[in-house]
């Protein structure tokens, strides 16, 4: 059985929110060093303070700036849902762009070499699964902007994860036949006015999902542009990227719903 659906969000909606009335506990944090060949990488791992034993895991993929405070903020936010989160390091230890121009150059290497991007992410997924706190059979992937593109590539690599969730990611489909490798549910959360995601890319993504009978869904947030989950993006949508609190809240509720559907009882 497979599902394909697109949802346009243009006005107020009521969503199920699986959050407790009390404030969630703070997550524990540690850095994780690992290697690919002879190159060093440094990711960040978050684990719920109150959790006992193994919990479901998330491999999180950063935006084009690499592993930053924004990445850690999102990782801790997701960990508060009761998940262990590993923020993977795509670029390599110490490779952290200083500005947007540098970020475009660094991220462009991986956008033009999807095989390399997949290899970096598959390795990160393996590192997550080997953390003692993680249930390796219960894993999803979440990514933002560049990382949103990344998690879809991880799915195209045939990764054995329950779902991938792309927040304002690139949706181009350079090799549509790779959709046949997808085992995961694919969730794309997009701003309706994102100038960096062309209509042709959206159409190509949807066609790839449909033609390969992928379990997928897309939610489009009216009035939102790129980077709508990132408070550091400012609030001026005319720049192409801006924080949108409504889209941020609604998209996180989609992730929350998904996590509870996959891993937790709603009793």
Which terms would index this structure?
disordered N terminus, 9-stranded mixed beta sheet, 267 residues, alpha/beta, 6 helices, Rossmann fold
Structure description:
- With 267 residues, this protein is α/β, with parallel strands linked by helices.
- It has a single domain, classed as Alpha/Beta hydrolase fold, catalytic domain (Rossmann fold).
- 31% of the residues lie in helices and 25% in strands.
- The chain has six helices and nine strands, in the order ββββαβααβαββαβα.
- The chain has helices at 69-79, 100-111, 114-129, 146-156, 199-211, 245-263, and strands spanning 4-9, 27-36, 39-48, 55-61, 84-88, 134-144, 163-167, 185-191, 216-221.
- It has a nine-stranded mixed sheet with strand order 1-9-8-7-6-4-5-3-2, sandwiched between helices.
- α5 links the parallel β8 (185-191) and β9 (216-221).
- α3 (114-129) crosses α4.
- The longest helix has 19 residues, at 245-263.
- The chain starts with a strand and ends with a helix.
- The model is unreliable at 1-23 (pLDDT under 50).
In short:
The chain is α/β, with parallel strands linked by helices and 267 residues long. It has 6 helices and 9 strands; from the N terminus they run E-E-E-E-H-E-H-H-E-H-E-E-H-E-H. It has a 9-stranded mixed beta sheet with strand order 1-9-8-7-6-4-5-3-2, sandwiched between helices.
